[in-house]
């Protein structure tokens, strides 16, 4: 087998695909095209009251490192408050989980997914923004929820109602 050398990925602090996703701002640092599908890395800024609702992905491993701030992580297995320096690992298998910033300060997370694919979902549903820019979370009516579910399913993800983990 021939060893092919590939150029390292380097980004300045304002480079990368920067997207508003459900009111959060995500900067894709490495995507599946760059890593042969092995992983993706996403820099996440989560404003107060921000964060994704309950969702699951059977084939994707996801981990977060909290660079700054704090998030509440919820799953079928309980809740966890992740503050600066905390690490959260969501194993494959479809664990339903979500996280939310319940503070008045922006939370800053570094997220890695293995294999890649989740970042392509974000690119499809997100809107381009400038570094540090936040857009309000779009309203989710019945049609928008259905569109989101269908799009998520394309990427191996399932979406659940906002209060799903509150009633377990």
How are the strands of the largest sheet arranged? 8-5-10-3-2-1-11
**Percent helix range:** 10-25%
Strand content: 35-45%
Number of structural units classed as domains: 1
Identify the notable features of this structure and list them briefly.
single chain; 168 residues; mainly beta; Jelly Rolls; seven-stranded antiparallel β-sheet; three-stranded antiparallel β-sheet; 2 helices; 38% strand
Structure commentary:
- This protein is mainly beta and 168 residues long.
- It has one domain (17-129, 139-166): Jelly Rolls (Sandwich).
- It is 12% helix and 38% strand.
- The chain has helices spanning 118-125, 142-154; strands at residues 17-21, 24-30, 40-46, 55-57, 61-68, 70-75, 78-83, 87-90, 97-100, 107-114, 127-128, 157-159.
- The strands form three sheets. A seven-stranded antiparallel sheet has the order 8-5-10-3-2-1-11, with helices on one face. A three-stranded antiparallel sheet has the order 7-6-9, with no helix packed on it. Strands 4-12 form a two-stranded antiparallel sheet.
- Strand 1 and strand 2 (24-30) form a beta hairpin.
- The longest helix has 13 residues, at 142-154.
- The chain is globular and about 55 Å long.
- The termini are far apart.
């Amino acid at each position: 087998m021939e060893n092919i050398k590939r150029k390292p990925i380097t980004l300045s602090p304002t480079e990368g695909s920067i997207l508003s996703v459900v009111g959060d701002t995500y900067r894709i640092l490495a995507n599946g095209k760059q890593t042969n599908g092995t992983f993706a890395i996403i820099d996440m800024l989560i404003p107060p009251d921000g964060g994704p609702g309950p969702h699951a992905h059977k084939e994707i491993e996801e981990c977060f490192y909290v660079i700054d701030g704090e998030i509440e992580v919820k799953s079928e297995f309980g809740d966890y408050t992740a503050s600066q320096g905390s690490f959260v690992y969501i194993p494959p298998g479809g664990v339903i989980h979500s996280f939310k910033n319940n503070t008045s300060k922006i939370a800053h997370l570094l997220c890695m997914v293995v294999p890649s694919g989740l970042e392509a979902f974000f690119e499809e549903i997100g809107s381009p923004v400038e570094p540090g820019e936040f857009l309000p979370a779009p309203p989710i009516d019945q049609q928008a929820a259905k569109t989101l579910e269908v799009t998520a399913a394309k990427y191996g993800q399932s979406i659940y109602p906002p209060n799903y983990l509150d009633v377990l």
